[in-house]
Fold:
Amino acid sequence: MNYTQQRIGFIKLKLFSIIIFTMILACPIFSQNETDNDNDFETWSSIEIEYKPTKKWSFALEEQIRLKDNSSVTDQYFTQLQIEYRAFKNFTFGSGLRYIKKNDTKGNIQGYEDHFRFHLDGSYNHKINQFSFKYRFRYQNKNELGISRKEGDFPNQHLRFKTSIDYKIKNWKFDPKFSIEIFNYFEKGETNGFDKYRVSIGTDYKLKNFGKLSLFYRLERELNVDYPKIINIIKFKYSYNFKSY
Structure:
């Protein structure tokens, strides 16, 4: 790669970074009506193993831990099994099962609670020049184990829509990734509607013959409440995939 090509690559990266940074600043992160109690900094760390027996099927097992209260207390940890099927060239369907140990640190009864969550996905992806776009629609259902509906435990359900953009830079290992996701909440006896969104920016680094490292910054903000909670998240992930075809 000559100097001109290298220079163009850096200019593209800089322009893309400015666009993403501007979009993040445009989000209403701070408000005069919000207090420090409405903000938090979390750390998410995970390890994932993915297996692809064929070009159409993939299976992934993930272990993740999340820290809250400025990353000083365990919020939850979980095990998740994800299955995906590539039905057509650009269409993928998937499903996931998650067993969660949730640390309840509020109220009279505190401690770890057992939760179970499943989701169903449909996604479409395509490319335009160096840009890769992915659109994912997800139905999510979560409830606490050991508590019946008579005791007030109704499924916590969400419809989620996520748009992701990856930008490929030639001869560059840290290609930027950006995504935005909105959540629509519905549960019996609760106020339903759009309740939060997430904005993420990050990158991957492929380790030769030894998987991939990912680093993301994520902003999560509540919607349609008087004092929205804002969570700043740093996510670390190591993933390793192998295939038998």
In short: The helical segments are 3-26.
